[in-house]
Amino acid sequence: MIFEHEIPSGSRLYFGESARIKRRIEAEAAALLEERGYSEMVTPLFSYHQHESFDDPRELVRLNDAANHQVSLRADSTADVVRIATKRLARSDGSKKWFYIQPVYSYPTREQYQIGGEDLEGDFVTVASDAAALLDRLGIRPTLQIANIAIPRILSERYGVSLEEVKSMRIEGILSAGHPWLERLVRIHSLEDLEDLSDFPEEIARELEAIREAARGLDYAGETVVSPLYYAKLRYYDALIFRIFEGDTLYATGGTYRIEGMQASGFAVITDACIAEQLQKGDA
Hints:
single chain; alpha+beta; BirA Bifunctional Protein, domain 2; eight-stranded mixed beta sheet; 9 helices
């Protein structure tokens, strides 16, 4: 039996103090991102192209349009922002930096509010710094994790390491490929672990060096960790990626990506996690 006051599991309800905090966070985010040269975009709730972004399309909430073509609820904002900016707005708007404040949805009834930015000409350090600056303005300084999705792909394509083993972080399966340097790669956790890269094949060392240089360029106030085998589920990421988290709480994610031949970078701050943190602190 479903009662009149019930809401679906995974959906969001904000009222009173939590609604005030949500409005304040979004207002501060909009002001900060506009200061940093972003223009705002609100993308359609429905999309034809969401399946192209996800390894597992079962995460999408799907339905059909008037012509019976399959569409899905917005599960990720990045791809649609890039396509709209480059295909529909390219002739009328010269903006290269866009931000959005809107929810995304995944199967069956999961709702998540996000504040994100896409820099169509930007680099990893720029967008990671923008995400960190937004969290810092809210007094949130959790752990920054930097990875490079090119490393798992190189391991899979050239060194016989199963990508599924990497995605699941099954260390025994990764090491079973038999390369002597894999054990050291698995153990990398800090920037100090990247000082000497001479043990690694040149192509792996080059991607590890990219992590090291990005971390040095960020000058992040909180703790920074390195996870060269972390694999993000979104297909468009192709190089440096990051997550900002504390314990099991994810506050932000992002990185560099390629969509329809365009190299760009972006981030998403999880508004719901920020609201919960501010409520816990009693900061309204």
